[in-house]
Design goal:
The strands form six sheets. Strands 3, 4, 5, 17, 18, 19, 20 and 21 form an eight-stranded mixed β-sheet that branches. Strands 7-6-11-12 form a four-stranded parallel β-sheet, covered by helices on one side. By secondary structure, it is of the alpha+beta class. InterPro entries: ATP-dep_Glu-Cys_Ligase-2, CP_ATPgrasp_2, DUF403. It holds the Pfam family CP_ATPgrasp_2.
């Protein structure tokens, strides 16, 4: 067909496309014929020159970048976030073929639910010998703590996924079941948004099935699990260090869930609550993206710092619904695959519609003998989700790939640890087309398909998440080792329904609140404000030192020295002394301003001190990553830009580098003011900003405006606090101490003054919710009111070092009191849970 085609663009597109030997290919038959359902995609791409095709796909890349989609690679030295790698050509599956996949997924999900219900209930499968006891008791994902208890709502498995691959015989095979905490749904949705934006006409004309119906069913199912309308549903995440944290935050926003970490939750009297700035609020259901073993340090893994103490007891009491149940990961073990065909016949009376890859558990003597008889044709891997004798859970060891000593070692593992090992048929994955910038080429892939249990039965996502290998090795691939992802298009012969999670017009309940703010999120917003303001204050000192050192002679050495001493006191520099130089004018040994500046500024901008720019920007970035769902894309990008500047600007002069950082920080401040909903979260960000700026300004004043301060020191203070223009507009005289003190400390119209910070911090605090109902003025409110009254009634002539230090210490105490009130809430808050829940 390709050779006879009169379309030169199509011939060029597929000029080097050659299916791999003995490997099924999605695009072409073994005879080299293009499969009909791929022709619309090929014809669309063939209309354009390769450069134009790449430009079209660049739209998808831009969509991914603009959405901030990322994942984290664990086994790299930096462990940083990586942009989401997109393979631009979608996998195309016609509806007739998809119906078979869908039926197989539903059958398998129902089967696994039946198995889980039995194993955590009467255990008849073990009693009757259908499953060896060692496969269950030896599985680390079997959670004895919940054995005998029935999940709230009845189902162990609420969300299920299966990794599929097409074998050389053309059939789809299940490679792995995903029941612990299936990931990838959010990435599948982002892939769909990106590819449909790049190929909108093709997406419409091919009548691609939508994904929103699946998420609508998922949200409805979770709401039903939660019980009454308006009940809180959380998505329990391990936190921002997890490789798929972006997806956790994305799904929480998309489905309207509360994103929570274990530290956000507490269990009181068997009921789960989330700590919010308004007190404890009950959580009725949780989507669990945390492995069950880490979910409760009291009854499961005692070393876990990610879970919720008492969660198992809440599950046993039936006060919280989990998706999926603790212990559902039991059926993910490779050892279970060995028994699935027989379990299907026993429990359903039918063979598996989607067979799984042939697997032998070596704990059975007969199976072990079979494995050793055909050893060179198999792959060896752990039976459960733990490593054994050098075999890792991330991939199988293909016997044929080993040398003689390697094969001998694998034989020894099978004989020495039979209960811990399985053997599998070597999987040769089918290939799909990937755009290499000029033409298409085949790459191996797997397809992850999702299903959710609804009251009407299992609903399967009509599409999925493809992982595509970067190499042409059809036996293994991983997103952690250079793989890419692709969208999956299920095409329909009929017009598709335009399903949306948006409510019908006229039926929208108007809301002006984002819901309850978890204490952890408020804490992170507060400290993000402090870190960014601390970085700005440090940079302003750096810029002032650089400017003064370049402009002046030894007469301003004292001002320069005080500024650099301040940087040392802030922990931003090491504080090594500069060597004296001989003054050309006086022939005396002095320390030139430039000499003072060089080493200190280098420390601040590039050193490893805790108060230096790399540390401060790193702290801000880590804090922002924990609340990524609450920051705009532009704000997230600006923080990432700051991190890039730390590494990329080292050849610029210090003052220029400080200018660049300050411009980005100013943009961040503007974004927070203009783009962020001005609710409680924004107020905590601003309070952190105001408290930190007031503290730093107090320290600057004590350092540069004491009674012995020279005009140069006072001018340096005005320069660092960005108040020179205002001062010069007000006063025609030189730089004098009392007017400077008034402007920098007491002028409530100066956005850099301490008075301005205290007044606005007080206003934000007054707008925050109270966590007690006694109506009395509490310590936090009393402290900020007293500070405001004092600074509003103080005159410049009354200012001395004792007064300034007093304000500084009271601001630090205010920060601690704020943390105790809103962030570090203890069990005493349970007293008000009943009234607030």
């Amino acid at each position: 067909m390709l050779a006879r085609s009169r379309n030169p663009g199509l011939r060029s597109l597929l000029a080097d496309y050659r299916p791999l030997p003995d490997v099924a290919d999605e695009l072409m038959t073994a005879a080299g014929e293009v499969r009909p359902h791929w022709l619309p995609v090929l014809n669309e791409m063939a209309r354009y020159r390769p450069a134009v095709v790449s430009q079209r796909f660049a739209v998808a890349d831009r969509q991914i970048k603009n959405s901030g989609v990322y994942y984290r690679v664990y086994d790299t030295p930096d462990g940083r976030d990586r942009p989401w790698p997109l393979a631009h050509v979608p996998l195309v599956i016609p509806d007739a073929e998809w119906r078979g996949i869908e039926a197989g997924i539903v059958q398998r999900a129902q089967l696994l639910e039946t198995v889980l219900s039995d194993l955590y209930g009467p255990a008849t499968l073990v009693r009757d010998g259908a499953l060896p006891a060692a496969v269950i008791a030896g599985n680390p994902d079997f959670q004895r703590a919940v054995a005998g208890s029935r999940p709230l709502g009845g189902e162990h498995l609420v969300i299920y996924a299966a990794d599929l691959g097409r074998g050389p015989d053309g059939r789809w095979w299940v490679l792995k079941d995903r029941a612990q905490a299936p990931s990838g749904m959010g990435y599948a949705l982002e892939n769909r948004l990106a590819i449909s934006a790049a190929l909108p006409a093709l997406y419409r004309d091919m009548q691609v099935e939508r994904l929103a119906g699946f998420f609508q069913a998922m949200r409805s199912t979770l709401a039903a699990k939660a019980g009454r309308e308006g009940s809180r549903i959380g998505l329990l995440t391990p936190g921002p260090a997890n490789e798929t944290y972006f997806e956790h935050a994305y799904l929480a926003r998309y489905l309207g869930l509360l994103l929570v970490e274990g530290a956000d939750l507490t269990v009181q009297d068997g009921t789960v609550y989330v700590r919010t700035i308004e007190g404890l609020k009950r959580i009725a259901a949780l989507v669990r993206r945390l492995d069950a073993d880490f979910a409760d340090p009291l009854e499961l893994n005692a070393g876990s710092r990610l879970g919720v103490p008492g969660l198992v007891q809440a599950v046993r009491q039936g006060s919280v619904a989990l998706a999926n149940s603790l212990g559902a990961g039991l059926v993910e073990a490779p050892a279970m695959l060995a028994f699935m065909p027989a379990l299907a016949r026993r429990l359903t009376g039918n063979d598996l519609i989607l067979p799984n890859v042939a697997t032998w558990w070596c704990g059975e003597a007969g199976a072990r003998e079979e494995v050793l008889r055909h050893f060179e044709r198999l792959a060896i891997l752990p039976a459960f989700t733990r490593e054994v004798a050098g075999l890792t859970r991330s991939g199988a060891s293909v016997v044929a790939d080993q040398d003689e000593s390697g094969q001998a070692r694998l034989r020894d593992v099978v004989n020495a640890h039979p209960l811990e090992v399985v053997a599998q048929e070597v999987v040769r994955l089918s290939t799909m087309p990937v755009w290499n910038g000029k033409r298409l080429e085949p790459h191996p892939f797997t397809l992850r398909v999702y299903a959710v249990a609804t009251p009407e039965g299992w609903k399967v996502m009509r599409g999925g998440f493809c992982r595509v290998g970067d190499s042409n090795d059809p036996r293994a691939l991983s997103m952690q080792h250079g793989g890419r992802s692709a969208d999956a298009w299920v095409t329909s012969e009929r017009p598709v329904d335009h399903v949306s999670l948006l409510p019908a017009p006229g039926k929208v309940a108007i809301k002006r609140s984002l819901g309850h703010l978890p204490s952890r999120a408020a804490d992170n917003l507060f400290w993000l404000g402090r870190y960014l303001e601390r970085a700005e204050a440090t940079l302003r000192v750096v810029r002032a030192v650089g400017e003064i050192a370049a402009e002046a002679d030894e007469e301003v050495v004292a001002a320069t020295q005080r500024l650099t001493d301040l940087l040392v006191a802030w922990g931003a520099a090491k504080g090594e002394k500069a060597e004296p130089a001989v003054s050309r004018r006086t022939a005396k040994a002095v320390i030139e301003p430039v000499a003072i500046a060089e080493g200190v500024l280098s420390d601040v901008l590039d050193g490893e001190e805790y108060g230096g720019m790399p540390a401060l920007i790193g702290a801000a970035a880590r804090t922002a990553s924990a609340i990524r769902e609450r920051l705009s894309r532009d704000a997230t990008q600006a923080i990432a830009d700051l991190g890039a500047m730390v590494v990329g600007d080292r050849n610029l002069p210090s003052a220029d580098r400080a200018d660049r950082y300050l411009h980005t920080l100013a943009a961040l401040s503007g974004l927070a003011h203009e783009n962020m909903n001005q609710l409680a979260g924004w107020r905590f960000l601003r309070i952190g900003h105001h408290i930190e700026r007031a503290i730093q300004t107090c320290r600057l004043v004590r350092r540069l405006a004491d009674e012995s301060a020279s005009a140069d020191m006072l001018d340096a203070l005005l320069r660092v606090t960005d108040s020179r223009i205002t001062y010069r507009a007000r006063y025609l005289m030189g730089t004098l101490r009392l007017p400077v003190l008034d402007l920098v400390l007491l002028d409530d119209g100066n956005p850099r003054s301490v008075a301005y910070q205290i007044i606005h911090a007080a206003e934000h605090l007054a707008a925050l919710p109270r966590t007690s109902r006694d109506g009395e003025v509490d310590a936090l409110t009393r402290a900020i009111r007293l500070m405001r009254a004092e600074i509003e009634t103080t005159q410049a002539a009354d200012v001395d070092d004792r007064l300034i230090l007093g304000f500084e210490n009271r601001l630090l105490a205010l920060s601690s009191e704020l943390s105790a009130r809103y962030f570090n809430q203890d069990e005493a808050m349970a007293e008000i849970a009943e009234g607030l829940g």
